[in-house]
Fold this sequence. Notes:
The chain is α+β, with helices and mostly antiparallel strands. The protein is built from five helices and three strands, in the order αβααββαα. The chain folds into two domains: 6-70, Orthogonal Bundle (Arc Repressor Mutant, subunit A), CATH 1.10.10.10; 73-107, no CATH class.
Amino acid sequence: xxxxxxxxxxxxxxxxxxxxxxxxxxxxxxxxxxxxxxxxxxxxxxxxxxxxxxxxxxxxxxxxxxxxxxxxxxxxxxxxxxxxxxxxxxxxxxxxxxxxxxxxxxxxxxxxxxxxxxxxx
Length: 121
């Protein structure tokens, strides 16, 4: 399998990202090295090239090793919701981009309900 084209190696790496539960890879992954037929240094170069080319694969340092993580757009929103108490800006941004985006949600609201906000001091 060492005669794979670079393009085929990229495809195998991208498929491996999709298979992984945590969507991460590193150059020392023995399974991936054997699948592609390269050593850790060559796999590191391939992962670097992919992360430089594709915006949704980011390189993160974890100790001395680099870990490459596949980021999906929804992951950004999930992280924002987990780590932020203020998400109003997200709704404003979405509404500014497409004023009709929340139109369907109006059918689920009850306009005759009163909403009360209780502040804890």
